[in-house]
């Protein structure tokens, strides 16, 4: 009987102001981060941006430790630095060194974006875990309702004319629809990772996904395996091993 | 009195056949490795060879564990793989991927050279440590006497005509002399590392020397710091930290 009650309680949509008030924060942080993404390309090219995105790993680790007060062991910290270095190594290409010439504004924007993204991730985890019995889809609902509200405001400000003239769905193709579906599914998956695992698991799985995507590209698109990719994969693999080995004793 | 006796005993040059018989082995191994070095360039270019030389790190670690029966902890093994990957990453340049096109003969030669070099290193350590009270310079003397004998034979076979026509010291310049002096001093240093530390310390210090040389080159020769060099240095630094952290409890 008590179990049924918990289950009923956890899937209800109606909720207290006290609970809902926290959900707009990650949505706002992600909005700012996503808007910054358009401006940073004035300072770095796309491959350079891919490399700078690896700063997310570091910021997530630091904020995770600071805010959630969960301790990573020293070995796990070493593993985390390796994860970041290994992913970046795997993405190296002959023009990667351009990123070292990024102007100061570009670096500052990249660091702000990394902090916003890391903070939003850690904050989301805190929200998702605060009420362990609340259904993850309900939590996701509130998270994305505010995401929709904020993005609607951004559309009104930035693209009002375009939407009025050509309609909201102008330019949508099959690929666009599939991309949206993909993002929606990965949004659900990420929320589940936040609730049942943590940001560290998310960062590791994102990195492995990046490497697997590259391996699949070899077969699908004839990409060449570079020595840098091989070395980066070795470093990421050792990092995963060390993260597991370095678990603090309970 | 007893201390004086040990000291006298340990610096005497005259020794039993039983002790000297082991010294020709590393000399012969190094000779074969050095001769192979001339042939491998038929299959790889100089930057590719520099990259393949990192296989030495792996072979030294494996043979160290197998022959000397000293256990590295799992964390130290992970650190060792990282050392190898980090050094290779630091040496990456836009043409490094050529090394992946090395023909099978080149790979086999590189692996044989790595095994010879690793085995010679581990064997030398075993010799140097077998008689802890024997003076390191005496041990070095015997090691290099056989090196001189073997190389004299190689000169007789390969360069007899050139030496007879132009003399042994033809082409020696100040730089040549300084190089010889440098090699002689590093030979003494390596023997001391073998006697008082071990092959693992040697491999780590060689790697750090490689990185420091590159950093010095930035100031002396205006080399550009590449992103790959930076990432490789991060990985090597973490590797050194992990090697220290992962020491098996005594």
From TrEMBL, chains A, B:
Keywords: Membrane, Transmembrane, Transmembrane helix
Cellular component GO terms, alphabetical: Golgi membrane
Transmembrane segments: 20-44, 104-128, 140-157, 169-191, 203-221, 227-244
Record's bilayer topology term: Multi-pass membrane protein
Subcellular location: Membrane
GO MF, any single term: pyrimidine nucleotide-sugar transmembrane transporter activity
Coiled coil: none
Pfam families recorded: Nuc_sug_transp
Signal peptide range in chain numbering: none
Record carries keyword Transmembrane helix: yes
Family classification: Belongs to the nucleotide-sugar transporter family. CMP-Sialate:CMP antiporter (TC 2.A.7.12) subfamily.
The protein's name in its UniProt record: CMP-sialic acid transporter 4 isoform X2
């Amino acid at each position: 009987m008590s179990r049924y009650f918990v289950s009923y309680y956890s899937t209800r949509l109606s909720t207290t102001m006290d609970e809902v008030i926290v959900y707009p924060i990650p949505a706002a942080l992600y909005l700012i981060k996503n808007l910054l993404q358009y401006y940073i390309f004035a300072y770095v090219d796309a491959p350079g941006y891919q490399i700078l995105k690896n700063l997310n790993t570091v910021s997530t680790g630091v904020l995770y430790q600071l805010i959630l007060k969960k301790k990573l062991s020293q070995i796990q910290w070493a593993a985390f630095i390796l994860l970041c270095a290994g992913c970046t190594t795997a993405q190296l290409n002959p023009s990667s060194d351009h990123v070292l010439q990024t102007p100061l504004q570009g670096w500052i924007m990249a660091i702000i974006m990394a902090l916003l993204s890391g903070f939003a991730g850690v904050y989301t985890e805190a929200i998702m875990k605060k009420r362990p019995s609340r259904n993850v889809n309900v939590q996701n609902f509130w998270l994305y309702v505010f995401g929709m509200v904020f993005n609607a405001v951004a559309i009104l400000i930035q693209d009002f004319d375009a939407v009025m003239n050509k309609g909201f769905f102008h330019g949508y193709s099959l690929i666009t629809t599939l991309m949206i579906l993909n993002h929606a599914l990965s949004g659900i998956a990420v929320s589940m990772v936040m609730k049942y695992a943590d940001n560290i698991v998310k960062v590791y799985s994102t990195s492995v996904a990046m490497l697997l995507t590259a391996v699949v590209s070899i077969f699908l698109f004839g990409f060449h395996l570079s020595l840098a990719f091989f070395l980066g994969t070795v470093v990421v693999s050792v990092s995963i091993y060390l993260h597991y080995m370095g678990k603090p004793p309970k």
